[in-house]
Design goal:
The chain contains ten helices and eleven strands. The protein is α/β, with parallel strands linked by helices and 293 residues long. It folds into two domains: 8-116, 3-Layer(aba) Sandwich (Rossmann fold); 139-270, Rossmann fold. The strands form three sheets. Strands 1-11-8-7-5-6 form a six-stranded parallel β-sheet. Strands 3-2-4 form a three-stranded parallel β-sheet, sandwiched between helices. A two-stranded antiparallel ribbon has the order 9-10. It is globular and about 50 Å long.
Length: 293
């Protein structure tokens, strides 16, 4: 069984980004710049944003963190995004989700300039992805593809089953895996809460992507021998015995499933780290697009 280690893979991706960034800075005298917006003080969001800022520093990017109170008016947030859209020194913009209920996530995403949408959520980028055109790919599916490439996981002609149909992970993941790409060309089945015979479908999967946000949902009796298991789930589960009062759990029951898998991602230490790697690659691409490289 191969452990698909996000720490090792993301380190390799970041090292390549850092080398390329140094060369570009020498030529264009400006570092890539990612602006992140955080609304409120959600614990998980705080952790994610802090990690993104730290990783930007590690590869030589500039990062700006803009904070707003949880009760900020929607228009003030939109005005700030428009300001960042017009700032030529900013290459990428991300707004950390989820947002408070009084703010429309759709409106926020659509306000971000598609050319700076390094999260890959804007409808323009989503449409380009569907049509196989160059676009910013949502960071988590992008990170998964980078991991498949790093470990040379063969995908051509395989049956991939994706559990989850969100616009952030499930749908773009299915598009990438079915696309005519070096680590695509799968036959893909998307499953969700209304899928009958889910267990039977999962048992057909050569590659199983779990992205539904239910800790330990995928059990060993849902996985065929030798399958590749990609666990996208990251859920905080209360655990009073843990130092922080919680543990991070994935959608896959790792201990029992790992005995049947040919390769599997751990949680934590798997796809979460690759999500940031995908974000950094998108930010570098946005920077290069500014100079039409």
């Amino acid at each position: 069984m191969i452990l698909l280690d996000g720490k090792v893979t993301s380190a390799a991706v970041k090292e390549n980004i850092k080398k390329e960034t140094l060369l570009l800075i020498d030529a264009y005298k400006r570092v890539p710049h990612l602006a992140a917006i955080l609304v409120g003080n959600n614990g998980a969001s705080e952790t994610y944003v802090a990690s993104k800022v730290k990783n930007c520093e590690e590869v030589g990017f500039k990062s700006s963190l803009i904070r707003f109170d949880v009760d900020i008016a929607e228009q003030i947030l939109l005005d700030k995004i428009i300001e960042l859209n017009n700032d030529l020194s900013v290459d990428g913009i991300l707004v950390q989700l989820p947002l408070p209920k009084h703010i429309s996530e759709g409106k926020v995403i659509e306000t971000i300039n598609a050319a700076k949408d390094v999260d890959g959520f804007h409808p323009i980028n989503a449409g380009k992805l569907v049509q196989g055109l160059p676009s910013f790919v949502p960071a988590t599916p992008y990170g998964v593809m980078l991991m498949l490439e790093h470990y040379n996981i063969q995908t051509k002609g395989k049956h991939a089953v994706v559990i989850g149909r969100s616009n952030i992970v499930g749908r773009p993941m299915s598009i990438l895996l079915s696309s005519n790409l070096p680590y695509g060309n799968c036959t893909v089945t998307i499953c969700h809460s209304h899928t009958p015979n889910l267990k039977e479908i999962c048992l057909q999967a050569d590659i199983l992507i779990a992205a539904l946000g239910k800790p330990g949902f995928v059990k060993q009796d849902m996985v065929k021998d030798g399958a590749v298991i990609i666990d996208v789930g990251i859920t905080r589960v209360v655990d009073e015995t843990a130092k922080r009062g919680f543990r991070i759990k994935g959608d896959v029951a790792f201990d029992e499933v790992s005995h049947k898998a040919s390769a599997i991602t751990p949680v934590p230490g798997g796809v979460g780290l690759m999500t940031i790697a995908g974000l950094l690659k998108n930010t570098l691409q946005a920077y290069k697009s500014n100079y039409e490289l």
